[in-house]
Amino acid sequence: MKVLLSVKTTYSALSAHWSRSFLTILGIIIGISALMLISSLGKGAQNLILSQIQTLGSKTIAVVPGREPKGPTDHAVVESFYGNSLKERELASLQKKSNVPKVSDVMPLVFGIETASRDKETFRPMVIGASHLISKIFNLVPQTGTFFTDDDVAGRSSAAIIGIKVKEELFGESDALGEKIKINDRNYRIVGVLPKKGQVLFFNFDEAVIVPYTTAQTYIFGIKYFHRIIVQTETEDDVPFAVRDIEATLRSLHGITDPEDDDFFVGTQAEISETFTTVTDILTVFLAAVSAISLVVGGIGIMNIMLVSVTERTSEVGLRKALGATEKNILFQFLLESFTLTTAGGIAGIIMGTVFSFASATIITSLTDLDWKFAFPMTAALVGIIISGAIGLLFGIYPAWKASRKNPIEALGYE
């Protein structure tokens, strides 16, 4: 009965000053909304990246130059794009079945952003140098035309396959097949046009130009090494054995006896997924912690307004004590009001954050080619409710204690 009375009193007290109550919990609403938005975007980004990684297939292995990064801030992440430890002899060694019996396909990759032009039209695509195996490994089937062949690779031919975005930017509605584009003052003949493919890991194939890797090395990038060597096995079960053989082959070739001295690293789909998950989780937690600062500010606001409320209702406290209310009853009453305020703010923040998150996912999808899906962060919602309620109790305890300690005689005489 006393609890029901406290609930009714809480409703009356808060609804009597609804505008003040709203302004009081605004910091809580903003903080929880930010927590929800950041968590949702982080989860959405993580899901997008993992889905792109999974398109490579669980049988795909990436051999990367440079040492293995130990974390997201390790300079090795940057060095891996400029290392030159993977060259023709490394490629030849990995193509020998006796060295890596579990490997079925080996493909070198070089890539970089370059300017492509046709007449007065220009575009800056990602130029990818690869062998014909790129069509198999990345599941690329030209919409029109075909892929270049091993003979094109051996002869450093000027054959090129372009993404649909490149075609639209340089050729518009006209047919691009058989036409030419210019990259670094050299003409390339279009032998194939890809359908809309979108982003696959680091490559947006809609905005890509694919040429033989020998051509890219010689005429576009001017390098004699590879940025990556992509390897595939026949089955998923073969992956651990292939990784072991790749590492042993390259260490033998480079005269490395201590794995700590490796000038390359081998990444599987599972390892790449785990790395990205860890990085996105760390960033999400960090950004969410920053957004929690507004919750502390909101908590201080709660304490301030509850102290004002205690002062304004001194006579009420005195009357309730005179009628038999105990200190525990008064303490519970004001704690309930504080808890109700912040919990209501938390619920409002979750609703607002969900709306903002859904709107953000919709905007990202409409403005980009990314298949960004809305992700409701259930954990963040539960944490938000718990934190908002805890803030109400933490910052409401002092005002509630102060109210419960008032002398009823002095309180009744308060003007």
From TrEMBL:
InterPro entries: ABC3_permease_C, MacB_PCD, Macrolide_Exporter_MacB. Residues 21-248 form the MacB-like periplasmic core domain. The chain crosses the membrane at residues 21-42, 282-310, 331-364, 376-398. The keyword Transmembrane helix applies. It is found in: Cell membrane. Keywords: Cell membrane, Membrane, Transmembrane, Transmembrane helix. Pfam families: FtsX, MacB_PCD. GO terms for cellular component: plasma membrane. Its main location: membrane. It is a multi-pass membrane protein. Residues 289-408 form the ABC3 transporter permease C-terminal domain. GO terms for molecular function: transmembrane transporter activity. Belongs to the ABC-4 integral membrane protein family. This is Multidrug ABC transporter substrate-binding protein.
